[in-house]
Every structure is written in structure tokens, then in C-alpha cells.
Amino acid sequence: MDFRAALLDQTQAFGELIRDADPSTPVPTCPDWTLNQLFRHVGRGNRWAAQIVAERRSQPLNPRDVRDGRPPEDPDAAIDWLNGGVQQLLTAVDQVGSDARVWTFLGPRPAGFWIRRRLHEVLVHFADAALASGADFDPAPELAADAISEWIELTVVQADKHAPPVDRGRTLHLHATESDLGPTGEWTIGNDEHGLSWSHDHGKGDVALRGPVRDLLLAIMRRRQAPELDIEVFGDEAMWDAWLQRTPF
């Protein structure tokens, strides 16, 4: 997948969705936020990541210190500001090199990490905006699948060892119904003597969810509950509930 092109495309689509909606619309999946606040959060977040990369920071950047971190009042200028933040990130990665180590919330990582991370941040907030405004949310299956993979990767790395999202000796399985995805449409998360890990292996989990990849993404990101979606849940449903409770973001 071309993460750079996808980040540009998703950010543009997100901006146009916000432009066409009432900016004061509440966003139920981001409590106490409006579409305008969601827009500002996404735009500033891209500039935050761009500044981290450009400065090759080894320490976090306070969001208040992001240069040009507020959008202009004019709607067209605000859209340019949003899209310009993405271009700043891509330019920064090119300038320092995608393999240059910079600060991330997971510890030092190659600068290119931020392109994929910001892509999926925008994608999920596009879902927030679509759900709030009644618009369609229909990402390309391969994009939604990679967003699930990235979220599981982050969850496994950051898991609380004292309250892991999957208990020792148990497994959770997700299975997208889009056959074209192949192995990338399946995810198995387990916890064995080596700790928490995940793979694209096919298997039978103690709990398994099966449905369209878009719906699996909305469910695992807590944007919708599984019973509200076209998802079948097999096995120990309490284990799925525990996963959601133990994977805050």
C-alpha cells in the first residue's frame, strides 16, 4: 500500500466532509467534541508529527508548541491548512530520510512510522465525522485491514502486563469476509508463555468475530458495538468485552 498517497487522499476527503457539514455538529464517538474541534485536532496532529520529524526530536513535542497549529477562520484557507500539514510531514520525512530515528510514543522509530500512523489516525477520525454527519464511511478494504493491523500492533506493544487485553492461554480471532484480502484479512491475538503476540494466521479463537472489514474496524476502534454491525461473534463474548475495556486509546 502507498501510505503517502493514502494519507493525502484520506486527509482531503476528511476535509471535504467537514467543509460540507455544520462545524458545530457534535461528534458522539469523541465526547464533548464538535466537527470543528475534530478538524482542528486532525490538522494540528499532522503538523505535530511533521515538526517532530523535521526537528529529529528525541523528546515529545507539546501540542501547544506546534507551529501554525490553529486553522484560519476562512473555510477555504482552513482546508489548505489541513492539506498543507500532510505535505509538511511528507517533506520532513523526505528531508531527514524515512529511516532516521525520531521520537514516537513507542520509543525511537524510523521517521516513516509517522506517515502510516497519521494515515490511520485520519481514517478513524474520518469515520467519526461520517458517523456524526450521517455520511458514508466506506474505506477501501485493504486500507481498513491495515488500520486493524496497525491498531493491534500498537495494542500489543503498549499492553498492560498486569491486565493484558487477552488473558494467558487464550486467543482472539478476527476474520474479514472479503476474500480478496487473503491472509491480511485475518488476525489472531494470543497470550502464551512468551507473552502477547499476533499474526495473520487462520485459527479458531476462544472468541472470534467475523464480518466486513469496515465493520471489524469500527468495532475494534469502539466506534460501534458489534451487535450494531454486520458482525457475527462466536465463543466467549465476555472476552471480547474485556479486550475493549483493556485497550484504551
From TrEMBL:
Residues 142-241 form the MDMPI C-terminal domain. Residues 6-130 form the Mycothiol-dependent maleylpyruvate isomerase metal-binding domain. InterPro entries: DinB/YfiT-like, Maleyloyr_isom, MDMPI_C-term_domain, MDMPI_metal-binding. Pfam families: MDMPI_C, MDMPI_N. One of its GO terms (cellular component) is plasma membrane. PANTHER family: CONSERVED PROTEIN (PTHR40758). This is Maleylpyruvate isomerase family mycothiol-dependent enzyme. It comes from Mycolicibacterium gadium (Mycobacterium gadium).
